[in-house]
Design brief:
3 domains; Immunoglobulin-like; 6% helix; mainly beta; six-stranded mixed beta sheet; binds CU-O-CU linkage; 533 residues; 40% strand
Length: 533
Protein backbone atom coordinates (compact mmCIF):
# COMPACT_ATOMS: atom_id res chain seq x y z
CA UNK A 1 0.00 0.00 0.00
CA UNK A 2 0.92 3.61 -0.59
CA UNK A 3 0.90 6.96 1.13
CA UNK A 4 -0.95 9.54 -0.95
CA UNK A 5 -0.58 13.27 -0.42
CA UNK A 6 -3.21 15.84 -1.32
CA UNK A 7 -3.39 19.56 -0.76
CA UNK A 8 -6.73 21.32 -0.35
CA UNK A 9 -6.55 25.08 -0.59
CA UNK A 10 -9.94 26.25 0.58
CA UNK A 11 -10.54 29.47 -1.33
CA UNK A 12 -13.32 31.75 -2.53
CA UNK A 13 -14.13 31.49 -6.21
CA UNK A 14 -16.57 33.57 -8.26
CA UNK A 15 -18.96 31.09 -9.84
CA UNK A 16 -21.87 31.59 -12.25
CA UNK A 17 -24.97 29.43 -12.07
CA UNK A 18 -28.61 30.21 -12.92
CA UNK A 19 -27.30 33.24 -14.84
CA UNK A 20 -25.93 34.97 -11.77
CA UNK A 21 -22.49 35.09 -10.19
CA UNK A 22 -21.44 34.90 -6.55
CA UNK A 23 -18.28 33.99 -4.65
CA UNK A 24 -18.44 30.47 -3.22
CA UNK A 25 -16.15 28.58 -0.86
CA UNK A 26 -14.36 25.83 -2.80
CA UNK A 27 -11.55 23.31 -2.62
CA UNK A 28 -8.80 24.48 -5.01
CA UNK A 29 -11.29 26.74 -6.81
CA UNK A 30 -13.41 23.83 -7.99
CA UNK A 31 -17.10 23.01 -7.55
CA UNK A 32 -17.56 20.11 -6.97
CA UNK A 33 -14.09 19.72 -5.51
CA UNK A 34 -11.30 17.47 -6.80
CA UNK A 35 -11.64 13.67 -6.48
CA UNK A 36 -9.42 11.78 -4.03
CA UNK A 37 -8.30 8.49 -5.53
CA UNK A 38 -6.65 5.74 -3.51
CA UNK A 39 -6.62 2.00 -2.99
CA UNK A 40 -7.87 -0.08 -0.13
CA UNK A 41 -5.27 -0.04 2.70
CA UNK A 42 -3.56 3.14 1.42
CA UNK A 43 -2.83 6.01 3.79
CA UNK A 44 -4.09 9.45 2.80
CA UNK A 45 -2.65 12.74 3.99
CA UNK A 46 -4.68 15.80 3.06
CA UNK A 47 -3.23 19.16 4.00
CA UNK A 48 -6.18 21.53 4.32
CA UNK A 49 -5.27 25.22 4.20
CA UNK A 50 -7.99 27.65 5.22
CA UNK A 51 -7.84 30.81 3.07
CA UNK A 52 -11.42 31.96 3.81
CA UNK A 53 -12.96 34.01 6.60
CA UNK A 54 -14.92 31.09 8.05
CA UNK A 55 -13.80 28.47 10.53
CA UNK A 56 -13.40 25.19 8.68
CA UNK A 57 -13.27 21.44 9.07
CA UNK A 58 -13.58 18.61 6.56
CA UNK A 59 -15.19 15.21 7.08
CA UNK A 60 -14.33 12.09 5.07
CA UNK A 61 -17.84 10.71 4.96
CA UNK A 62 -17.95 6.93 5.36
CA UNK A 63 -14.24 6.45 6.01
CA UNK A 64 -14.14 4.41 9.18
CA UNK A 65 -11.15 6.23 10.73
CA UNK A 66 -10.22 3.24 12.85
CA UNK A 67 -8.41 4.65 15.92
CA UNK A 68 -7.91 7.97 14.10
CA UNK A 69 -10.99 9.91 15.19
CA UNK A 70 -8.82 13.04 15.18
CA UNK A 71 -9.06 12.97 11.39
CA UNK A 72 -12.83 12.45 11.19
CA UNK A 73 -13.63 16.14 10.86
CA UNK A 74 -16.98 17.19 12.41
CA UNK A 75 -16.28 20.52 14.11
CA UNK A 76 -16.57 20.46 17.91
CA UNK A 77 -17.19 16.70 17.84
CA UNK A 78 -13.74 15.38 16.94
CA UNK A 79 -11.77 18.58 16.42
CA UNK A 80 -11.70 22.30 16.90
CA UNK A 81 -12.10 24.08 13.57
CA UNK A 82 -9.19 25.13 11.38
CA UNK A 83 -9.23 28.89 11.85
CA UNK A 84 -8.75 31.37 8.98
CA UNK A 85 -5.10 31.32 7.87
CA UNK A 86 -4.42 28.01 9.62
CA UNK A 87 -3.96 24.49 8.28
CA UNK A 88 -4.29 20.89 9.41
CA UNK A 89 -3.19 17.58 7.90
CA UNK A 90 -5.90 14.91 7.96
CA UNK A 91 -4.03 11.61 8.18
CA UNK A 92 -5.92 8.33 7.90
CA UNK A 93 -5.72 4.81 6.51
CA UNK A 94 -8.41 3.14 4.38
CA UNK A 95 -8.70 -0.09 6.35
CA UNK A 96 -10.88 -2.75 4.74
CA UNK A 97 -12.94 -0.41 2.58
CA UNK A 98 -13.31 0.02 -1.16
CA UNK A 99 -15.89 1.88 -3.22
CA UNK A 100 -17.26 5.40 -3.51
CA UNK A 101 -17.34 7.76 -0.56
CA UNK A 102 -17.03 11.52 -0.39
CA UNK A 103 -15.71 14.40 1.64
CA UNK A 104 -17.43 17.58 2.72
CA UNK A 105 -16.98 20.55 5.03
CA UNK A 106 -18.47 19.75 8.45
CA UNK A 107 -19.15 23.16 9.94
CA UNK A 108 -21.76 25.86 9.24
CA UNK A 109 -23.39 25.18 5.84
CA UNK A 110 -20.07 25.20 3.99
CA UNK A 111 -20.66 21.73 2.65
CA UNK A 112 -23.05 23.24 0.10
CA UNK A 113 -20.01 23.93 -2.08
CA UNK A 114 -17.09 22.28 -0.25
CA UNK A 115 -17.43 18.65 -1.26
CA UNK A 116 -16.04 16.05 -3.65
CA UNK A 117 -15.70 12.34 -4.36
CA UNK A 118 -13.43 9.77 -2.73
CA UNK A 119 -12.74 6.74 -4.91
CA UNK A 120 -11.23 3.75 -3.12
CA UNK A 121 -10.14 1.13 -5.65
CA UNK A 122 -9.83 -2.50 -4.56
CA UNK A 123 -6.35 -3.77 -3.77
CA UNK A 124 -4.14 -4.36 -6.81
CA UNK A 125 -5.12 -7.59 -8.62
CA UNK A 126 -8.45 -7.81 -6.78
CA UNK A 127 -11.24 -7.48 -9.36
CA UNK A 128 -14.67 -5.96 -8.80
CA UNK A 129 -17.28 -8.64 -8.10
CA UNK A 130 -18.95 -7.62 -11.40
CA UNK A 131 -17.62 -7.22 -14.97
CA UNK A 132 -15.00 -4.50 -15.23
CA UNK A 133 -16.57 -1.38 -16.70
CA UNK A 134 -15.11 0.26 -19.81
CA UNK A 135 -14.92 3.56 -17.91
CA UNK A 136 -15.89 5.06 -14.54
CA UNK A 137 -17.47 8.46 -14.00
CA UNK A 138 -18.22 10.56 -10.94
CA UNK A 139 -21.73 12.01 -10.67
CA UNK A 140 -22.11 14.45 -7.77
CA UNK A 141 -25.65 15.67 -7.11
CA UNK A 142 -26.03 18.96 -5.27
CA UNK A 143 -28.08 22.06 -4.57
CA UNK A 144 -27.59 25.67 -5.54
CA UNK A 145 -28.81 28.85 -3.85
CA UNK A 146 -28.63 32.16 -5.71
CA UNK A 147 -27.96 33.94 -2.44
CA UNK A 148 -25.14 33.34 0.02
CA UNK A 149 -25.74 29.99 1.72
CA UNK A 150 -24.51 31.10 5.16
CA UNK A 151 -26.92 34.05 4.97
CA UNK A 152 -29.79 31.65 4.20
CA UNK A 153 -29.31 29.66 7.40
CA UNK A 154 -28.44 32.69 9.53
CA UNK A 155 -31.70 34.36 8.52
CA UNK A 156 -33.61 31.21 9.41
CA UNK A 157 -31.94 30.94 12.81
CA UNK A 158 -32.86 34.54 13.56
CA UNK A 159 -36.49 34.02 12.62
CA UNK A 160 -36.82 30.59 14.22
CA UNK A 161 -38.44 29.35 11.01
CA UNK A 162 -37.35 27.05 8.17
CA UNK A 163 -34.69 28.36 5.75
CA UNK A 164 -35.37 29.11 2.10
CA UNK A 165 -35.16 26.06 -0.12
CA UNK A 166 -32.49 26.00 -2.82
CA UNK A 167 -33.05 27.55 -6.25
CA UNK A 168 -31.86 24.50 -8.18
CA UNK A 169 -30.41 21.04 -7.98
CA UNK A 170 -27.16 20.26 -9.74
CA UNK A 171 -25.47 17.37 -11.53
CA UNK A 172 -21.68 17.68 -11.32
CA UNK A 173 -22.14 21.31 -10.36
CA UNK A 174 -24.62 22.31 -13.08
CA UNK A 175 -28.41 22.71 -12.92
CA UNK A 176 -28.89 22.37 -16.68
CA UNK A 177 -31.32 24.65 -18.49
CA UNK A 178 -34.09 26.02 -16.26
CA UNK A 179 -36.91 28.47 -17.04
CA UNK A 180 -35.36 31.91 -17.43
CA UNK A 181 -31.80 30.64 -17.78
CA UNK A 182 -30.97 28.41 -20.76
CA UNK A 183 -27.54 27.46 -19.41
CA UNK A 184 -25.84 24.31 -20.58
CA UNK A 185 -25.84 21.35 -18.23
CA UNK A 186 -23.20 18.71 -17.62
CA UNK A 187 -22.43 16.40 -20.55
CA UNK A 188 -21.27 12.83 -20.12
CA UNK A 189 -19.69 11.55 -23.35
CA UNK A 190 -20.16 7.80 -24.03
CA UNK A 191 -19.42 5.29 -26.77
CA UNK A 192 -22.01 2.80 -28.05
CA UNK A 193 -22.03 -0.78 -26.77
CA UNK A 194 -19.96 -0.21 -23.63
CA UNK A 195 -20.57 -0.49 -19.90
CA UNK A 196 -19.90 2.51 -17.69
CA UNK A 197 -19.87 2.69 -13.93
CA UNK A 198 -21.34 5.84 -12.45
CA UNK A 199 -20.28 6.67 -8.91
CA UNK A 200 -23.26 8.73 -7.77
CA UNK A 201 -23.05 10.89 -4.65
CA UNK A 202 -25.86 12.91 -3.07
CA UNK A 203 -24.11 16.02 -1.77
CA UNK A 204 -27.32 18.07 -1.56
CA UNK A 205 -27.90 19.79 1.76
CA UNK A 206 -31.55 19.10 2.28
CA UNK A 207 -32.98 16.84 -0.41
CA UNK A 208 -33.35 13.14 -1.00
CA UNK A 209 -33.24 12.69 -4.77
CA UNK A 210 -34.48 10.47 -7.57
CA UNK A 211 -31.94 9.87 -10.35
CA UNK A 212 -32.75 8.51 -13.79
CA UNK A 213 -31.36 8.31 -17.33
CA UNK A 214 -33.70 8.32 -20.33
CA UNK A 215 -33.72 5.02 -22.25
CA UNK A 216 -31.18 3.25 -20.01
CA UNK A 217 -31.50 0.81 -17.14
CA UNK A 218 -29.24 1.14 -14.14
CA UNK A 219 -27.68 -1.90 -12.46
CA UNK A 220 -26.96 -1.12 -8.82
CA UNK A 221 -23.74 -2.79 -7.63
CA UNK A 222 -22.65 -0.86 -4.56
CA UNK A 223 -23.97 1.57 -1.94
CA UNK A 224 -21.96 3.50 0.65
CA UNK A 225 -18.80 1.65 -0.40
CA UNK A 226 -20.19 -1.83 0.20
CA UNK A 227 -21.07 -4.29 -2.57
CA UNK A 228 -24.69 -5.27 -3.04
CA UNK A 229 -26.39 -8.07 -4.98
CA UNK A 230 -26.74 -6.45 -8.42
CA UNK A 231 -30.26 -5.49 -9.49
CA UNK A 232 -31.74 -3.47 -12.32
CA UNK A 233 -33.86 -0.39 -11.93
CA UNK A 234 -35.01 2.67 -13.93
CA UNK A 235 -34.66 5.04 -11.02
CA UNK A 236 -32.47 5.20 -7.96
CA UNK A 237 -33.29 6.97 -4.70
CA UNK A 238 -30.41 8.55 -2.87
CA UNK A 239 -30.42 10.51 0.38
CA UNK A 240 -27.94 13.23 1.31
CA UNK A 241 -24.76 11.48 2.45
CA UNK A 242 -25.38 8.31 0.50
CA UNK A 243 -23.43 7.02 -2.49
CA UNK A 244 -24.58 4.53 -5.13
CA UNK A 245 -22.57 2.86 -7.88
CA UNK A 246 -24.51 1.79 -10.96
CA UNK A 247 -23.53 0.14 -14.23
CA UNK A 248 -25.03 1.59 -17.42
CA UNK A 249 -24.66 -0.27 -20.70
CA UNK A 250 -24.97 1.89 -23.76
CA UNK A 251 -26.83 0.49 -26.75
CA UNK A 252 -25.57 0.09 -30.30
CA UNK A 253 -27.06 3.27 -31.70
CA UNK A 254 -26.35 6.90 -31.01
CA UNK A 255 -28.18 9.90 -29.70
CA UNK A 256 -28.50 12.10 -26.66
CA UNK A 257 -30.35 11.12 -23.49
CA UNK A 258 -31.48 13.20 -20.57
CA UNK A 259 -30.03 12.48 -17.13
CA UNK A 260 -32.32 13.83 -14.40
CA UNK A 261 -32.26 14.35 -10.62
CA UNK A 262 -35.28 15.63 -8.70
CA UNK A 263 -36.44 15.69 -5.05
CA UNK A 264 -38.16 12.86 -3.24
CA UNK A 265 -40.55 13.67 -0.42
CA UNK A 266 -39.76 16.92 1.20
CA UNK A 267 -41.80 18.02 4.06
CA UNK A 268 -45.24 18.37 2.48
CA UNK A 269 -45.04 22.12 2.95
CA UNK A 270 -41.86 22.55 0.91
CA UNK A 271 -42.30 23.87 -2.59
CA UNK A 272 -38.95 22.93 -4.04
CA UNK A 273 -39.40 20.84 -7.15
CA UNK A 274 -36.65 21.82 -9.56
CA UNK A 275 -35.22 19.02 -11.67
CA UNK A 276 -31.54 19.12 -12.54
CA UNK A 277 -30.66 17.75 -15.97
CA UNK A 278 -27.52 16.60 -17.74
CA UNK A 279 -26.92 14.78 -21.02
CA UNK A 280 -25.58 11.35 -21.91
CA UNK A 281 -24.03 12.09 -25.28
CA UNK A 282 -23.14 9.21 -27.63
CA UNK A 283 -20.00 9.84 -29.63
CA UNK A 284 -20.73 10.87 -33.19
CA UNK A 285 -24.16 12.28 -32.36
CA UNK A 286 -24.63 15.88 -33.37
CA UNK A 287 -24.88 18.36 -30.50
CA UNK A 288 -27.89 19.83 -32.28
CA UNK A 289 -29.71 16.45 -32.30
CA UNK A 290 -32.83 16.22 -30.15
CA UNK A 291 -32.37 14.80 -26.66
CA UNK A 292 -34.51 11.86 -25.58
CA UNK A 293 -36.31 13.19 -22.53
CA UNK A 294 -37.38 11.48 -19.35
CA UNK A 295 -39.25 12.46 -16.26
CA UNK A 296 -38.44 11.41 -12.72
CA UNK A 297 -41.17 10.18 -10.36
CA UNK A 298 -43.26 12.84 -8.58
CA UNK A 299 -41.79 13.96 -5.28
CA UNK A 300 -44.31 11.99 -3.21
CA UNK A 301 -43.65 8.69 -5.08
CA UNK A 302 -43.06 6.73 -1.88
CA UNK A 303 -43.65 3.38 -3.58
CA UNK A 304 -40.75 3.99 -6.00
CA UNK A 305 -38.49 4.68 -3.03
CA UNK A 306 -39.77 1.71 -1.03
CA UNK A 307 -39.28 -0.68 -3.97
CA UNK A 308 -35.77 0.57 -4.52
CA UNK A 309 -34.76 0.38 -0.87
CA UNK A 310 -36.23 -3.09 -0.38
CA UNK A 311 -34.16 -4.36 -3.34
CA UNK A 312 -30.88 -3.54 -1.56
CA UNK A 313 -29.09 -6.62 -0.17
CA UNK A 314 -25.49 -7.09 0.86
CA UNK A 315 -23.52 -9.11 -1.67
CA UNK A 316 -22.68 -11.45 1.23
CA UNK A 317 -20.22 -13.52 -0.80
CA UNK A 318 -17.39 -15.61 0.60
CA UNK A 319 -15.01 -12.74 -0.09
CA UNK A 320 -17.36 -10.02 1.16
CA UNK A 321 -19.42 -11.57 3.96
CA UNK A 322 -22.09 -9.63 5.82
CA UNK A 323 -20.98 -9.93 9.45
CA UNK A 324 -24.26 -8.97 11.06
CA UNK A 325 -24.03 -8.92 14.87
CA UNK A 326 -26.35 -11.64 16.17
CA UNK A 327 -25.96 -11.21 19.91
CA UNK A 328 -26.95 -7.71 21.03
CA UNK A 329 -25.49 -5.86 24.05
CA UNK A 330 -27.48 -2.63 23.72
CA UNK A 331 -31.01 -2.58 22.37
CA UNK A 332 -31.89 1.08 21.77
CA UNK A 333 -34.83 2.99 20.39
CA UNK A 334 -34.32 6.58 19.29
CA UNK A 335 -37.17 8.78 18.18
CA UNK A 336 -36.22 11.38 15.60
CA UNK A 337 -38.27 14.39 14.74
CA UNK A 338 -38.92 18.07 14.98
CA UNK A 339 -40.19 20.16 17.87
CA UNK A 340 -40.83 23.76 18.86
CA UNK A 341 -39.03 25.52 21.69
CA UNK A 342 -39.53 29.00 23.12
CA UNK A 343 -37.25 31.64 21.65
CA UNK A 344 -37.72 35.14 23.09
CA UNK A 345 -35.50 36.72 20.42
CA UNK A 346 -37.22 35.04 17.43
CA UNK A 347 -40.03 36.71 15.45
CA UNK A 348 -42.75 34.36 16.69
CA UNK A 349 -41.28 33.89 20.15
CA UNK A 350 -40.52 30.29 19.25
CA UNK A 351 -38.17 28.36 17.05
CA UNK A 352 -38.19 25.04 15.24
CA UNK A 353 -35.87 22.51 16.85
CA UNK A 354 -35.10 18.87 16.14
CA UNK A 355 -34.27 16.11 18.56
CA UNK A 356 -33.39 12.50 19.21
CA UNK A 357 -35.27 10.99 22.15
CA UNK A 358 -36.43 14.50 22.89
CA UNK A 359 -32.87 15.78 23.35
CA UNK A 360 -31.90 18.75 21.19
CA UNK A 361 -28.13 18.46 20.99
CA UNK A 362 -26.11 21.47 22.10
CA UNK A 363 -22.69 21.85 20.50
CA UNK A 364 -19.81 22.10 23.01
CA UNK A 365 -17.09 24.77 22.98
CA UNK A 366 -14.19 22.32 22.68
CA UNK A 367 -14.29 19.03 20.82
CA UNK A 368 -15.90 16.05 22.51
CA UNK A 369 -13.05 13.80 21.41
CA UNK A 370 -10.53 15.99 23.24
CA UNK A 371 -12.74 16.08 26.31
CA UNK A 372 -12.96 12.29 26.20
CA UNK A 373 -9.26 11.63 25.52
CA UNK A 374 -7.90 14.14 28.05
CA UNK A 375 -10.64 13.50 30.62
CA UNK A 376 -11.84 17.11 30.63
CA UNK A 377 -14.97 17.24 32.73
CA UNK A 378 -17.96 19.51 32.19
CA UNK A 379 -18.01 19.21 28.39
CA UNK A 380 -20.50 16.34 28.01
CA UNK A 381 -22.44 13.81 30.04
CA UNK A 382 -22.74 10.09 29.21
CA UNK A 383 -26.43 9.80 30.00
CA UNK A 384 -28.06 9.94 26.57
CA UNK A 385 -31.39 8.10 26.95
CA UNK A 386 -31.42 4.69 25.26
CA UNK A 387 -35.20 4.84 24.95
CA UNK A 388 -37.79 7.60 24.51
CA UNK A 389 -38.45 9.42 27.80
CA UNK A 390 -42.20 9.28 27.24
CA UNK A 391 -43.95 6.66 25.20
CA UNK A 392 -46.76 7.70 22.93
CA UNK A 393 -48.15 6.86 19.54
CA UNK A 394 -45.31 8.16 17.40
CA UNK A 395 -47.12 8.48 14.13
CA UNK A 396 -50.74 9.49 14.49
CA UNK A 397 -51.48 11.63 17.52
CA UNK A 398 -49.78 14.94 17.86
CA UNK A 399 -48.46 15.64 21.30
CA UNK A 400 -49.58 18.82 22.97
CA UNK A 401 -46.16 19.80 24.20
CA UNK A 402 -43.58 20.04 21.43
CA UNK A 403 -40.80 21.30 23.67
CA UNK A 404 -37.53 19.38 23.79
CA UNK A 405 -34.73 19.28 26.36
CA UNK A 406 -31.31 20.65 25.49
CA UNK A 407 -28.08 18.88 26.32
CA UNK A 408 -24.68 17.63 25.23
CA UNK A 409 -25.42 14.05 26.12
CA UNK A 410 -23.55 11.02 24.74
CA UNK A 411 -24.27 7.31 24.83
CA UNK A 412 -21.32 5.28 26.13
CA UNK A 413 -20.29 1.90 24.70
CA UNK A 414 -17.53 -0.49 25.71
CA UNK A 415 -15.14 -1.57 22.97
CA UNK A 416 -16.70 -4.29 20.80
CA UNK A 417 -20.20 -3.92 22.25
CA UNK A 418 -22.94 -4.67 19.78
CA UNK A 419 -25.84 -2.30 19.26
CA UNK A 420 -29.30 -2.66 17.82
CA UNK A 421 -30.78 0.75 17.21
CA UNK A 422 -34.34 1.35 16.08
CA UNK A 423 -34.79 4.81 14.62
CA UNK A 424 -38.42 5.86 14.82
CA UNK A 425 -39.74 8.93 13.02
CA UNK A 426 -42.22 10.71 15.27
CA UNK A 427 -43.93 12.93 12.75
CA UNK A 428 -44.71 15.28 15.64
CA UNK A 429 -45.03 18.37 13.51
CA UNK A 430 -44.97 16.76 10.12
CA UNK A 431 -43.69 13.38 9.04
CA UNK A 432 -40.41 13.67 7.16
CA UNK A 433 -37.71 11.31 6.00
CA UNK A 434 -34.54 11.58 8.02
CA UNK A 435 -31.32 10.26 6.48
CA UNK A 436 -29.37 9.35 9.63
CA UNK A 437 -25.60 9.14 9.27
CA UNK A 438 -23.33 7.40 11.76
CA UNK A 439 -19.64 8.34 11.77
CA UNK A 440 -16.93 5.74 12.45
CA UNK A 441 -18.96 2.64 11.54
CA UNK A 442 -20.91 0.86 8.88
CA UNK A 443 -24.14 -0.68 10.06
CA UNK A 444 -26.61 -3.23 8.73
CA UNK A 445 -30.22 -2.27 8.12
CA UNK A 446 -31.97 -5.37 9.48
CA UNK A 447 -35.54 -4.12 9.21
CA UNK A 448 -37.78 -1.22 8.30
CA UNK A 449 -41.47 -0.48 8.35
CA UNK A 450 -44.19 2.12 8.43
CA UNK A 451 -46.04 3.18 11.56
CA UNK A 452 -44.87 2.39 15.06
CA UNK A 453 -42.08 -0.12 15.63
CA UNK A 454 -43.53 -3.19 17.33
CA UNK A 455 -40.85 -4.64 19.64
CA UNK A 456 -42.65 -8.01 19.88
CA UNK A 457 -43.48 -8.70 16.23
CA UNK A 458 -41.11 -6.72 14.03
CA UNK A 459 -37.82 -8.35 15.16
CA UNK A 460 -39.15 -11.72 14.02
CA UNK A 461 -38.99 -10.41 10.44
CA UNK A 462 -35.46 -9.00 10.65
CA UNK A 463 -33.03 -9.95 7.91
CA UNK A 464 -29.90 -11.14 9.71
CA UNK A 465 -28.43 -12.87 6.64
CA UNK A 466 -27.81 -10.33 3.89
CA UNK A 467 -29.09 -6.92 5.01
CA UNK A 468 -27.64 -3.91 3.24
CA UNK A 469 -24.59 -2.40 4.93
CA UNK A 470 -24.20 1.37 4.85
CA UNK A 471 -23.29 4.52 6.73
CA UNK A 472 -26.40 6.63 6.05
CA UNK A 473 -29.95 5.34 6.24
CA UNK A 474 -33.26 6.97 5.38
CA UNK A 475 -35.66 6.67 8.31
CA UNK A 476 -38.97 6.47 6.45
CA UNK A 477 -41.46 9.23 6.98
CA UNK A 478 -43.86 8.09 9.72
CA UNK A 479 -41.96 4.83 10.06
CA UNK A 480 -38.87 3.19 11.47
CA UNK A 481 -35.65 1.46 10.54
CA UNK A 482 -33.58 -0.95 12.64
CA UNK A 483 -29.79 -1.03 12.33
CA UNK A 484 -27.06 -3.10 13.96
CA UNK A 485 -23.37 -2.41 14.40
CA UNK A 486 -20.36 -3.46 16.44
CA UNK A 487 -18.53 -0.74 18.38
CA UNK A 488 -15.07 -1.82 17.24
CA UNK A 489 -13.71 1.70 16.84
CA UNK A 490 -12.72 3.65 19.97
CA UNK A 491 -13.48 7.38 19.98
CA UNK A 492 -16.39 9.78 19.77
CA UNK A 493 -18.71 9.20 16.84
CA UNK A 494 -21.30 11.65 15.68
CA UNK A 495 -24.72 10.53 14.52
CA UNK A 496 -27.04 13.03 12.87
CA UNK A 497 -29.63 13.67 10.25
CA UNK A 498 -27.89 14.44 6.96
CA UNK A 499 -30.53 17.01 6.06
CA UNK A 500 -28.34 19.94 7.04
CA UNK A 501 -31.24 21.99 8.34
CA UNK A 502 -32.16 19.22 10.78
CA UNK A 503 -28.56 18.93 11.97
CA UNK A 504 -28.54 22.66 12.61
CA UNK A 505 -31.78 22.34 14.56
CA UNK A 506 -30.25 19.68 16.83
CA UNK A 507 -31.10 16.28 15.32
CA UNK A 508 -27.74 14.87 16.39
CA UNK A 509 -26.01 12.97 19.20
CA UNK A 510 -22.79 11.03 19.62
CA UNK A 511 -21.59 7.66 20.84
CA UNK A 512 -18.46 7.50 22.95
CA UNK A 513 -16.64 4.18 22.56
CA UNK A 514 -14.05 3.37 25.20
CA UNK A 515 -10.71 1.76 24.46
CA UNK A 516 -10.43 -2.02 24.47
CA UNK A 517 -7.74 -3.97 26.29
CA UNK A 518 -5.93 -5.29 23.22
CA UNK A 519 -2.84 -3.74 21.59
CA UNK A 520 -4.77 -2.27 18.64
CA UNK A 521 -7.93 -1.35 20.45
CA UNK A 522 -7.22 2.14 21.70
CA UNK A 523 -7.58 5.60 20.23
CA UNK A 524 -4.24 6.99 19.03
CA UNK A 525 -3.06 10.33 20.46
CA UNK A 526 -3.89 13.53 18.52
CA UNK A 527 -1.40 14.71 15.87
CA UNK A 528 0.93 17.59 16.74
CA UNK A 529 -0.77 20.07 14.37
CA UNK A 530 -4.22 19.39 15.83
CA UNK A 531 -6.22 22.67 15.70
CA UNK A 532 -6.79 24.59 18.93
CA UNK A 533 -10.10 26.13 19.92
CU1 LIG B 1 -21.55 13.48 5.84
CU2 LIG B 1 -21.49 14.12 9.85
O1 LIG B 1 -21.56 13.91 7.80
Amino acid sequence: CMVRHYKFNVVLKNTTRLCSTKPIVTVNGRYPGPTLVAREDDTILVKVVNHVKYNLSIHWHGIRQIRTGWADGPAYITQCPIQPGQNYVYNFTLTGQRGTLWYHAHILWLRATVHGAIVILPKRDVPYPFPKPHKEEIVVLGEWWKSDVEAVINEALKSGLAPNVSDAHTINGHPGPVPGCPSKGYTLPVKPGKTYMLRIINAALNEELFFKIAGHQLTVVEVDATYVKPFKTDTIVIAPGQTTNVLVTTHRGGGKYMVAASPFMDAPIAIDNVTATATLHYSGSLTSAATTLTSTPPKNATSVATNFISSLRSLNSKQYPANVPLKIDHSLLFTVGLGINPCPTCVNGSRVVASINNVTFVMPKISLLQAHFFNISGVFTSDFPGNPPVSFNYTSTQVTNFATKQGTRLYRLAYNDTVQLVLQDTGMITPENHPLHLHGFNFFEVGRGLGNFNPKEDPKKFNLVDPVERNTIGVPSGGWTAIRFRADNPGVWFMHCHLEVHTTWGLKMAFVVDNGEGPNESLLPPPSDFPKC
